[in-house]
Amino acid sequence: MNGELLQKVDCTKFLGVLIDHGLTWKPHIDSISVKIAQCTGVLSKLKHYLPKNILRSLYLTLILPHLSYCLPVWAGTSKKHLTKLTTLQKRAIRHICCVDSIEHTSKLFSSLNLLKFTDLIHIKEAVFAFRIVNNLAPPYFQQIFTFNCDTHGHNTRQSRYLRLPRFNSKFLKQSLRVRASSTWNTLPNEIQRCKSISCFKSKYFKHCIENY
User: Fold this and answer.
1) Could you give the CA distance from residue 162 to residue 159 in angstroms, rounded to a whole number?
2) What highest taxon heads this organism's lineage (predicted)?
3) 162 and 181 in contact (C-beta within 8 Å)?
4) Do the Cβ atoms of 18 and 27 come closer than 8 Å?
């Protein structure tokens, strides 16, 4: 580029995200897994001395940013890689609540008013879709998404659903376009019809917590 020879690398960091040559996102997940595991270890020691509300604040400060940063970009990785983060998150939640390692976590998430990792993914995808539907996203993204009504023209209940593109590969199936559209189309109409992002996030969050 510009007369300079570019070096081929297997992985590089861009804006804090490790991008590998195959877009598996495994290096990035491995990296944040190490950081989260260290923070979880801190919680396991502090749980004997600090109250639950302080431990929860530490989770929000030390762990949640690693789980949520640029999440829509790398959440299309394989379930095997995501499971590692899910396990670490559950371990942290059990430490906060001072329960055994085999304790079910759904009620713990509800009591702490925190989202499970899978729902963190879904709410990020849903917010992205909300921006698309309400023309709040950059033009490039607006152009690659279409509505059901754009293809059949009938005013049905699903006319404002995002149209799922046809895909014949696992790579496309895991793309943000497919994931965001699928998440949006499964939302209750009450949530889809929100007029602001803050209202949308609030109702979606409440919807998730109520189902734990």
Assistant:
1) 8
2) Eukaryota
3) yes
4) yes
What integer pLDDT is reported at residue 1 of this predicted model?
62
Residue ranges of the chain whose pLDDT lies below 70: 1, 3, 148-160, 167, 169-171
Q: Are the CB atoms for 67 and 85 separated by under 8 Å?
A: yes
Is the alpha carbon torsion for 142, 143, 147, 149 positive or negative? positive
CA–CA gap between residue 188 and residue 85 (Å, rounded): 28
**φ, ψ of residue 155 in degrees (nearest 5):** -90, 75
121 in Cβ contact with 75 (< 8 Å): yes
Which pLDDT score, from 0 to 100, does residue 148 have? 63
Beta-strand ranges (E) seen in 121-168 are: none
Are 132 and 180 a contacting pair, CB within 8 Å? yes
> Which pTM does this prediction carry?
0.87
Question: Which residues lie across from 20 on neighbouring strands?
Answer: 11
Asked whether 199 and 176 are in contact (CB, 8 A), the reply is no
